[in-house]
Specification:
heterodimer; A: 619 residues; alpha+beta; 21 strands; B: 339 residues; mainly alpha; two-stranded antiparallel ribbon
Chain lengths: 619, 339
């Protein structure tokens, strides 16, 4: 409320410090006594001054302007991809630590780094193992809880999958930890440390989406994990003793044999990447996989890709130097060249292919998921790709921040336009009813009464359901605006009508009539501007109400349909108690910004009401 | 007074039929043809002209060929249906729910009971808290306690109901574990008597708390504003000047006059709670009430049920308006004389 003392002296009025300079810039006149003020200041100016003398209202205005600017400007930078979704990015918690490797790893020298879904595992030259990124997958499964036996062993190689990780120590023992729901960490008996006689060394370990692949020095291959999801069959009779290397994709793997040919390891191809091109030949040097494609490096230095290229993995660029190593992420590939430079291509959604400009001479690269690590000759580790999501992701792997920003624009646009519709109807009908009175007034007021006696939300829901089924998302958005406008005009109409009654007997109206001014002109250009200031309060509050109603409708599923985000339908996700419990970032951020915006609007409305109220001036 | 009320009742009845006609027209915008649905499988087996004849016959039997206004009158129960009997809303036939495969009247019993308990308890609690609180704030305006409460109410009435619902679920159900997160009773329980009541209340407690909380903020502000307005009036000064006790001044002189604007807002608020508020709350808490039923019917395009529920909501709104009028006449003697 008004914080000034009640002794009637305007000079005692305290002013909020932030806006003292605004007043001095735009309203330079001193505080005047009541008589001087009436002669010199327009009522509008008094209202503005009153408004700016209230700290709460001014702070609310500033905050609201910031939020509004944010949601209208930021969408130009944070673009929204409506089709965006990724099963590996589901419910990622907020933060940008996905590539924040421990400094100890760099100091001791990198032995190996493996990238899993949103987390990474690394081993340094002393055999110490590190895990960083979003390693806490559920309340129970946390890959950051490295088992005692693993942290005490001297690790030389690591592999990271969707929800499990592998490590190989210098004795040739393989350790696995993480989720074991589908046998991801249950090693085949031949590989188990206690009944293995260490008669063969381990050459490669791979961990992928709930399955693992291991290649031994004597050319054998072992697979284990979720065989329902992935094709991890292995024809041991046919290939044992000849396997040189393996490449894993999301759902299967392919192997490179000692004769330089590539083949699938199983019996019958299920996935496109298992269908190795016939003309590939037998001069393959190395293979690697993305989510659903395989990239092969041939002896002559050229690259071949097959399988399903989702995000442009097959548009292989030109290289300035022969290729030394290739590595695949989820939707991209990175190649290390002989001259120490690095080239990335494929999906660009999370900057996976934006190799840093000033990269030094690179010794080795470690790639996976959406992340890249480049180990420079000078021991420095450079990273590029997805760092994380500042507000996390939702149940479909969509960035909450970009949806928050774009949803805010949608919510505010709908709120504003529905208020405009409400204003147009309310002012025209209220103006006509108040000016003419009599039968016109009676009819308009009865219509207003009928509309206002309709139950608002149920009625809006049925209108949206009936009209919204046969139209596009955009049209539906406009329909929602119109529905909100049409159902909420009676309040404003009554206010304008009451003001009209008072104004139409004023001298200036009589003067205008005597001069023969058209009646429509008297109403809309003489009287309405005079009552606008009173309507301003109602309009401000109506904006808040419209936003609330739109979000309630979207929350109930009858507003703007998914995947177009609004603050309401984003909160719709949080109707689920599992989301409320475990994935707080899905509703806390949007709830907070929405709540703050609504509180600000109401505070601005209250401030305006007080500023307009002559009683509030203590006279 | 009687004449005035009679006038209002007649007016409301007219409005009810007008709104119901409008609803019926909106409902008829939905492109659906039950006759075509029944006849479509026969299209291949019959000759085209024979099919058309049978189709038209079926349309006549189902009463689909009649003009909109006639169908409305039949649905309402003003006119005899095709079979010669009156079977409309006025006769208590609310239609047939396609998703439940039962008559609408048999479905809405339990949800109605839940909704009425929910709304009644929360309304009584809200008013019991909000009126003394609002008066206290007005009497102690601009003191520390009032300012704190004002800040709290701004937050309360700015936040959408569902957000408060989610927040309360998180605090009271997830973090503290005092209440269940949703539902109407313990699954599989066979409590009877007192235990059943306690179980019900345990499940309904959180929705009620949320409804009371959201109502609290807005209503306290209304009561406070009305009281503050009245307290500046001259007759209050007169009452104090002639030495009346402060209690008498506040509760007898001021409050009775402040009640006039308050009663309008109370009714408006109650209508809002009964329709929109409980709709959102019941969905947030998965409570089997009318709001959830309406929502489910709309999502499964069970339009006869929707239409019946819509009529129910309209009726509640209109009764609310009528009650406002009656409370006006009770509170303000001038209305009785005027009209």
């Amino acid at each position: 409320m008004d914080n000034k003392s009640n002794n009637g002296s305007a000079a005692a009025k305290k002013e909020f410090f932030l806006f003292r300079w605004i007043r001095r810039l735009f309203f330079p006149n001193k505080e005047l006594d009541i008589y001087a003020e009436e002669q010199m200041q327009s009522p509008f100016r008094v209202v503005v001054r009153n408004f700016f003398s209230k700290p709460t209202a001014v702070v609310a205005l500033i905050v609201f302007i910031i939020i509004a600017l944010f949601v209208f400007i930021a969408p130009h930078f944070v673009t929204l991809d409506l089709g965006e979704q990724d099963s590996t990015l589901v419910f990622v918690s907020p933060g940008s630590n996905m590539m924040k490797y421990p400094s100890e790893l760099k100091e001791n020298g990198v032995a190996d780094i493996a990238v899993g879904n949103n987390y990474s595992v690394g081993a340094d030259k002393n055999g110490k193992i590190y895990v960083w990124g979003k390693a806490k997958l559920t309340k129970v499964i946390d890959l950051g809880n490295i088992p005692e036996e693993v942290s005490s062993a001297k690790i030389v190689k690591v592999a990271a999958g969707a929800d499990h990780a592998l490590a190989l120590d210098d004795q040739g023992t393989i350790y696995a930890w993480g989720s074991d729901r589908l046998g991801q960490t249950t090693l085949p008996s031949e590989l188990k440390s206690n009944n293995r006689l260490h008669e063969f060394g381990i050459k490669e370990i791979h961990a992928a989406n709930q399955f693992s692949v291991v290649v031994t020095d004597d050319g054998r291959l072992f697979t284990w994990g979720n065989s329902n999801l992935a094709d991890i069959d292995y024809d041991a009779e046919k290939y044992d003793g000849h396997v040189v290397s393996a490449a894993v994709t999301n759902f299967t793997y392919v192997i490179l044999l000692d004769d330089g040919t590539v083949t699938m390891g199983g019996f019958a191809p299920k996935f496109s990447e298992q269908r190795v091109p016939d003309d590939l030949g037998s001069n393959v040097k190395a293979i690697t996989g993305s989510s659903s494609s395989i990239l092969a490096l041939l002896e002559d230095g050229s690259l071949r890709i097959w399988g399903n290229s989702v995000k442009g993995e097959n548009s292989i660029p030109q290289f300035t130097s022969p290729i030394k190593k290739i590595a695949g992420g989820r939707y991209h590939y990175t190649a290390l060249l002989e001259n120490g430079s690095v080239v990335s291509w494929g999906g660009t959604r999370y900057n996976q292919t934006s190799v840093p400009e000033n990269l030094g001479e690179v010794e080795d690269i470690f790639v996976g998921s959406f992340q890249n690590y480049a180990l420079q000759k000078d021991g420095e580790i450079r990273t590029w790709g997805l760092k994380g999501f500042i507000f996390g992701t939702d149940g479909l792997g969509r960035d909450v921040f970009s949806r928050l920003v774009n949803g805010g624009r949608m919510t505010m646009t709908i709120g504003a336009l529905s208020v405009v519709i409400e204003m147009i109807i309310g002012i025209i009908l209220g103006g006509i009813a108040g000016y003419f009175g009599g039968v016109v007034d009676m009819v308009v007021m009865r219509i207003a009464e009928i509309v206002s006696s309709m139950p608002f939300i149920p009625f809006a829901m049925i209108l949206s359901a009936v009209m919204g089924t046969r139209v596009s998302v955009e049209q539906r958005m406009y329909i929602i605006m119109v529905i909100l406008g049409i159902l909420s005009w009676p309040g404003l109409c009554r206010l304008v009508r009451a003001q009209m009654f008072a104004q139409r007997e004023m001298e200036y109206v009589i003067a205008a009539k005597a001069l023969g001014v058209k009646e429509s002109k008297i109403i809309f250009s003489h009287i309405i501007p005079n009552v606008m200031s009173v309507c301003l309060v109602s309009i401000t509050l109506a904006f808040g109400t419209s936003m609330l109603t739109e979000s309630s409708l979207s929350y109930l599923g009858f507003g703007v349909p998914l995947p177009t985000p609004t603050w309401g339908n984003m909160l719709d996700n949080a109707k689920n108690s599992i989301v409320i419990q475990n994935y707080w970032w899905n509703w806390v951020f949007v709830g907070a910004i929405f709540g703050i915006a609504c509180i600000c609007i109401n505070l601005i409305g209250d401030g305006l009401r007080d500023a307009l109220d002559p009683k509030a001036n203590g006279r | 007074m009687k004449k005035y009320l009679l006038k209002r009742v007649i007016y409301l009845i007219i409005v009810f039929f007008f709104v119901s006609l409008m609803m019926y027209m909106i409902y008829n915008l939905i492109p659906s043809d039950p006759a075509l649905v029944q006849m479509e499988p026969l299209r291949k087996t019959l000759k085209p002209e024979e099919w058309t004849r049978q189709y038209q016959e079926l349309r006549r039997q189902l009463g689909l060929d009649a003009p909109l206004i006639v169908r409305y009158a039949r649905w309402m129960g003003f006119m005899r249906d095709v079979d010669g009997n009156f079977s409309g809303l006025l006769q208590g036939d609310f239609g047939f729910s396609t998703s439940y495969k039962r008559n609408v009247i048999d479905i809405i019993g339990v949800p109605m009971q839940n909704s009425i308990i929910l709304n009644l308890v929360s309304t009584i609690l809200t008013l019991a808290i909000t009126i003394p609180l609002g008066i206290y704030c007005a009497v102690h305006a601009r003191k520390a306690a009032d300012s704190a409460l004002q800040a709290f109410t701004v937050v309360g009435y700015s936040l959408p109901t569902f957000l408060i619902g989610i927040l309360f679920i998180y605090i009271f159900a997830v973090l503290l574990g005092w209440f269940p997160t949703g539902g109407a009773k313990t699954p599989g329980s066979t409590y009877t008597g007192v235990m059943e009541f306690i179980d019900r209340m345990h499940y309904m407690a959180l929705p009620i708390i949320v409804l009371v909380f959201t109502g609290l903020a807005g209503m306290t502000r209304t009561v406070r504003a009305a009281m503050m307005d009245t307290l500046t009036q001259d007759y209050i000064r007169t009452a104090r000047a002639k030495g009346l006790k402060e209690k008498v001044v506040i509760y007898s002189h001021a409050w009775r006059n402040a009640l006039l604007p308050v009663s309008t807002s109370i009714m408006g608020w109650m209508i809002g709670v009964f329709t929109g508020g409980s709709l959102v709350i019941e969905n947030t808490f998965a409570l089997n009430g009318t709001g959830r039923l309406y929502w489910a019917a709309l999502t499964s395009t069970d339009y006869e049920l929707v239409l019946a529920m819509q009529m129910f909501y309209t009726l509640i709104s209109l009764i609310g308006v009528l009650l406002t009028d009656i409370s006006y006449t009770l509170v303000d003697p001038r209305v009785r004389i005027d009209k």
